[in-house]
Design a protein that fits this description.
single chain; 208 residues; mainly beta
Length: 208
């Protein structure tokens, strides 16, 4: 579950194949995918951590490594983190309201029930995932890339679920793309309403 600026903690279990008794320090490297510079932080213990505030729509890499007395480094394991684009920054037609909730990314979502209401956002990436709320009174959402209908999402679920991940698009290149989310005013059998809640868009750019 996304909560905002993400603490990344060094840990011997993440990167090290060394005998832990020989470890003298830990190192953490992180940076923006595609950028030439990175940031390094050292810690004398596995409990050390480094907190950074990532930019929405950007993908970061990070890895931990351990060092022994001879300064030999373990083989690092690279991880990736894509920072979501909060729905509060989307562009909207009429009919949308902000819905505060501590269970959702950045403290809330946007919601609409008016048929034809649209929300748009743009991001560069190779994999796009919409975070949305599902529930017993939620309806259908159409997702477009440009003018092309990609998919129709059913946001109904028997109980309310927050930050549900819906993959919507995958590509091999990462240009800036614009997505439109349209309230359909329809709902699946079992749902008691057609309201939709949009939380965030995750646009990741993980190297292949």
């Amino acid at each position: 579950r996304w909560t905002g600026p993400t603490p990344i903690r060094t840990a011997s279990g993440l990167a090290s194949t060394q005998d832990t008794s020989s470890i003298t320090s830990y190192g953490l490297t992180f940076g923006l995918v595609g950028a030439s510079k990175n940031t390094y932080a050292a810690s004398p213990t596995a409990a050390g951590s480094k907190v950074f505030a990532g930019q929405p729509g950007k993908t970061y890499y990070y890895y931990a490594a351990t060092f022994d007395a001879a300064d030999d480094e373990s083989t690092p394991v690279v991880r990736y983190l894509a920072v979501p684009i909060d729905s509060s920054t989307f562009r909207y037609s009429r009919g949308w309201l902000r819905n505060a909730s501590t269970s959702e990314y950045a403290g809330g979502s946007v919601t609409a029930v008016r048929p034809g209401a649209i929300a748009q956002t743009s991001a560069a990436g190779t994999n796009y995932t919409l975070l949305a709320r599902t529930g017993p009174a939620e309806g259908m959402l159409a997702v477009y890339l440009g003018a092309h209908l990609l998919t129709t999402l059913d946001l109904y679920s028997p109980t309310t679920q927050h930050q549900v991940a819906f993959p919507i698009y995958t590509a091999h290149t990462a240009p800036n793309r614009t997505f439109t989310f349209k309230v359909m005013g329809k709902h699946a059998v079992g749902s008691t309403g057609a309201r939709v809640y949009l939380d965030a868009l995750v646009a990741s750019n993980v190297p292949e």
